[in-house]
Design brief:
The protein is of the alpha/beta class. It folds into 2 domains: about 140 residues, Four Helix Bundle (Hemerythrin (Met), subunit A); about 200 residues, Rossmann fold, CATH 3.40.50. Helix 2 runs parallel beside helix 4 and helix 5 packs across helix 6. The longest helix is centred in the middle third of the chain and has 30 residues. The radius of gyration is 20 Å and the shape is globular.
Length: about 350
């Protein structure tokens, strides 16, 4: 690992020729430190251990992991290199099962390699690096476009509630939900943010608040259980979150706790929006019932940092995500515009015009 003393914002992930550098998000905001990945297994470990998180960022990491596999492979033919890439893809896909961008990026990388099996291994390696870097660049551009479409939804003077972290740290840069907020501020609107702390990893407390403070956007952190009270008292005007996977009917998997926020928003007549790129939409599944929800180590609940706050004999259930049915979602902000209900036809139409 490489230390970094600067307190300025750093790129979430970088391709460095023969290795990958990621900002270790487990250490933020108290320390900024790079996590160096020299082999595909290092990238998989980084994804599993939450060094890098957020569906778009995981997709970028997956693309770079496949490129790193190509660089490290000793294959002497295009077909042999493709076999190595497929083996890596099989293992990589299991790193975090809920985030669809992971699977999307792997498929995109393999598709490009499969079109080049008659080429030399060196040509394929160059192509894999080029494709991975394209995924990174496109993600930043896509976030800017989402911000452009989404900022119109935020009234001047509004307080926005967000859950988890869907900012620059969860993407290649700029952010999805936070990108919409940033775009609103850049357009001249006065916007305040309430950020749920987001147990158990505290992404809202550690990451969202950190990003917004760096940008000079007013932010207050609240406990996850306080959101409903602030909605009822009229302190929240709009809710915007990111997403990890969206089904063909609009049902959306996002960080655990999102479902209850969406229900509370509907009860209090507050619009609830999802901001996510089209690469997060999995049109192969009909509804959220088909989304594989990742369960993580119970110690993430039983501990805060490295300190145990309860005995090991206490059982803990730790789903990383929940599914919000589409009936609670006011709209889905994408790089191609805002999809409204009915989502089945809206999603189908936006993919046909993609």
């Amino acid at each position: 690992m490489e230390g970094e003393d600067s307190l300025t914002m750093l790129p979430t992930i970088e391709w460095k020729g023969d290795h990958i550098r990621m900002l270790d998000q487990r250490k933020l905001p108290l320390k900024k430190e790079y996590y160096v990945c020299k082999a595909p297994k290092d990238v998989m470990d980084a994804i599993k251990k939450m060094v890098i998180r957020g569906a778009p960022a995981i997709g970028i990491a997956a693309g770079m992991c496949m490129a790193l596999c190509a660089v490290r492979s000793k294959a002497r033919s295009g077909s042999a290199l493709l076999m190595d890439l497929r083996k890596t893809a099989d293992t990589l896909e299991k790193a975090r099962p809920t985030a669809y961008n992971l699977k999307w990026a792997i498929k995109r990388m393999l598709n490009r390699a499969e079109r080049m099996t008659s080429s030399s291994p060196e040509k394929i390696r160059e192509s894999m690096i080029e494709e991975a870097l394209s995924i990174l660049k496109e993600d930043i551009d896509i976030n800017r476009k989402m911000g452009y479409f989404g900022q119109e939804l935020i009234p001047d003077g509004a307080t926005v509630l967000t859950h988890c972290n869907a900012g620059a740290l969860a993407t290649g840069g700029y952010g999805t939900a936070l990108g919409v907020i940033r775009a609103a501020v850049e357009s001249g609107k006065k916007v305040r943010v309430m950020a749920d702390e987001t147990r158990p990893w505290l992404q809202g407390l550690r990451l969202t608040a950190f990003e917004l403070m760096e940008d000079g956007i007013p932010v207050e952190v609240i406990t996850d259980s306080a959101a409903g009270s602030f909605m009822r008292s009229g302190r929240i005007d709009i809710v915007i979150t990111g997403a990890d996977r969206i089904a063909a009917n609009g049902d959306t998997a996002n960080k655990i706790g999102t479902y209850q926020i969406a229900v509370l928003a509907k009860e209090n007549r507050i619009p609830f929006f999802i901001a996510a790129p089209l690469s997060t939409i999995d049109t192969s599944i009909k509804s959220g019932e088909e989304i594989d929800i990742e369960f993580r180590d119970p110690d993430e609940i039983r501990r805060i940092g490295r300190k145990s706050i309860v005995g090991q004999e206490v059982n803990a259930l730790n789903p990383a995500f929940d599914v919000t049915p589409s009936r609670y979602i006011t709209g889905i902000i994408t790089e191609k515009g805002i999809i409204g209900p009915p989502y089945i036809s809206g999603i189908r139409r936006i993919f046909q015009n993609k």
